[in-house]
Amino acid sequence: MIDQRLFKLTEKKNLIKLVLVRLFSLALSIIMWWQIAGKLANYLAGEPVNLLPLILTLIAVIILKALSNKWSERLTYRASADLRLKLRHQVMTKAFRLGKSQEQLPQATLAQLSVDGIEQLEIYYARFLPQLFYCVLASLLIFATLVQFAVFPAIILLICMPLIPVVIMSVMKIAKKILDKYWTRYTDLGAKFHENLSGLATLKAYHQDEARQKNAKDSAEQFRKITMRLLSMQLNSITVMDIISYSGAALGIGLALISYQNGQISIMGVLMFVLLGAEFFIPMRQLGSLFHVAMNGISACKKLFDYLALPEQIYGEKDMNHVSEIQFKHVDFGYTDYALALKDVSLEFKKGHFTAIVGQSGSGKSTLVQLMLHRFQDYQGQIVWDQLELQELSHKSLTNLSTLVDNKGYIYPMSIRDNLLLGNKTASETELWRVLSEVQLIDFVKGRPYQLDEILNENGSDLSGGQRQRLLLARALLKKSDVYIFDEITSGVDLASEEIILDCLKQLAQKKIIIFISHRLYNVLSADQIYVFENGRIVEAGTPEELQAQTGYFNNYFAEEVEVFSGGQ
Question: Which top CATH class is 325-408+482-568?
Answer without folding.
Answer: alpha beta
